[in-house]
Design goal:
1 helix, globular, single chain, about 325 residues, mainly beta, Methylamine Dehydrogenase, Chain H, four-stranded antiparallel β-sheet, 28 strands, about 0% helix
Length: about 325
């Protein structure tokens, strides 16, 4: 599937050295041999990371402004699920089996964590204060939230949730050390205020896969398995909207209050209004899922994903990007 898409976009491939189109996504690099791509993040047009790989074999690929290159990982690194970047010399990636790797500008180094559960998301206001979330959505284990401070990684003690069956948290995002959101299975939403956790209900029992925002009173979460779900926070309450025929959503990113960039199944790449209305639909002609979307300060926005339904391979990825116009 990814190979067919690559062929269709071959004439629109761009290595990023020239201006990107604003009206469509073009191929960032050939990902048909990379394995799945699950996350993308960076700080500038010359510092962009993509994380992923295959079951049992992680991948980190970096763009330096002119070319993409694979960066050596510790032997035995499993599939990597989410990368968070503070600067060219400071990044962190989490993955399967409780894996955490830290980047110092030259080397990815593993850190010990108190879990063997898969870690699906990570975020932190600084390298010394980081949250990682995960779990195992196919069994009855408890979901996991880890925190990294000066003493290393430790598991958070969570309140008893009113919502049953929450065995995985998928993503974490915040605006500060005292404003952190976590989303997960069955519509679970938790908030950290710097001292304690509070559970919220957005009115959906669908899985919430990703969360992002533009400020403490303007946050969006997306998910759904059979069709897309958008949940929004206005500083007082969470509400949710079923997006009807739109496929399930996996990723969200925002820089403008009324432009919610979402990624999802079957090539979905759409810009929503904060009310859930479709502002721009740039969905790709593919059955390949887009798992994450991320924008740089310059306005370059990148989407990555893979053929996740092919659990026994071949493991193919997808990587596309475009330039955001003003207002998006």
């Amino acid at each position: 599937m990814a190979a067919a898409l690559l062929a269709a976009l071959a004439g629109a491939c761009d290595d990023g050295s020239a201006g990107l189109p604003t009206d469509r996504f073009v191929t960032a690099f050939d990902a048909t041999q990379t394995g799945w791509l699950l996350s993308v993040a960076g700080t500038s047009d010359s510092d962009l990371w993509v994380a992923g790989g295959k079951p049992g074999a992680g991948l980190m690929r970096h763009f330096d402004g002119s070319e993409w290159s694979d960066v050596t990982l510790p032997q035995g690194t499993p599939l990597l699920d989410w990368v968070h970047v503070w600067g060219p010399d400071s990044a962190l990636v989490v993955g399967d089996l409780g894996t955490v790797l830290v980047w110092d500008g030259a080397t990815w180094t593993p850190e010990t964590t108190p879990t063997t559960q898969n870690l699906w998301g990570a975020w932190g206001p600084s390298p010394d204060d980081v949250w990682a979330v995960g779990g195992n959505s196919v069994n009855d284990d408890d979901a996991t939230i880890l925190r990294r401070d000066a003493g290393g990684w430790h598991a958070e003690t969570l309140p008893t949730l009113a919502r049953p069956g929450v065995n995985a948290f998928f993503k974490v995002w915040g605006t500060s050390a005292s404003d952190v959101w976590v989303v997960g299975r069955r519509g679970a939403i938790l908030h950290w205020d710097g001292a304690s956790w509070t559970e919220f209900d957005a009115g959906t029992g669908q899985d919430l896969i990703a969360v992002w925002g533009t400020g403490p009173d303007h946050v969006a979460a997306v998910g759904g398995r059979n069709n897309g779900i958008l949940a929004t926070w206005n500083g007082q309450t969470w509400t949710s909207k079923n997006l009807g025929a739109m496929p399930g959503l996996n990723g969200v990113w925002m820089r403008s209050p009324d432009a919610v960039h979402v990624a999802g199944a079957r090539g979905t790449l759409v810009t929503l209004g904060f009310d859930g209305s479709v502002r721009q639909d740039r969905t790709l002609n593919t059955e390949t899922d887009v798992h994450a979307v991320f924008g740089l300060p310059s306005g370059r926005i990148t989407g990555v994903g893979g053929n996740f339904l092919f659990s026994n391979g071949p493991y193919e990825g997808i990587a596309v990007w475009r330039q955001l116009p003003a207002g998006e």
